[in-house]
Amino acid sequence: MPIFSPTITDFWQTEFLNGDVLYSDEVFTIAINPDLDEDRRIMVLETIDGRVMVVLTPALAEKTALHKKQGLSEETFRQKLNEAGVSLHGADYLFYFSEADKNVVLQENLEGELRRLTGHDHAVFSNFQSSASEQDLDDAYVELDHWAVFGSFEQNRLVSAASMYPWENSRIADLGVLTLTSFRGKGHARKVVRSISKYAYGQGYEPQYRCQLDNLASVSLAKAAGLTLYGKWDVVSPDSMN
């Protein structure tokens, strides 16, 4: 597995092991934590080295009969969820820069019409949003009032933007990116992702890039921007039974 910052690995270890470990072996770990938020009362993380970690509330552990320490596996866990009528939302890929790629980002200076956006760019950003579809706006979740916003321009027109906000009170900054359809494939998104990531590093944050598994364009962008897949993260479905 590539070497990632301890900020990243420690965050996910804490998320999944900050409770009573019900079962653990070389590939599968499950823990119970009564302090999970309602919308994350079950979480599953599968890292690229094949390890799977699960954390859930005591109530859901009881509901799914996950109280016996022997014979547990990912397959058993998912079967018990299904039998109890508990569904998951659908996993996101988690991408980060490896420590080696982080150093490259920190040392580069990207060329072109690229800069940080502020509240003074309200008109420019509004015009940008009005040129995008509602679906693209929802998927990207790029907002001018986020913690940091960067944009790439073409002939003085904002054509691609990325924004970030601190993730879960950690030193991780979750980012979204949106490029207007007719300007895709020109490297704008790659530049804004790397530029905003360099800024985040300067503020003491690790950039995080998430996307749904079936969003092939977003997956391709993550790789083009130099990010490395860390794993897949899933939570309980909003429509799932309590």
Automatic annotation (TrEMBL):
A GO MF label: acyltransferase activity, transferring groups other than amino-acyl groups
InterPro entries attached to this UniProt entry: Acyl_CoA_acyltransferase (IPR016181), GNAT_dom (IPR000182)
Domain N-acetyltransferase: 112-242
Keywords: Transferase
Protein known as: GNAT family N-acetyltransferase
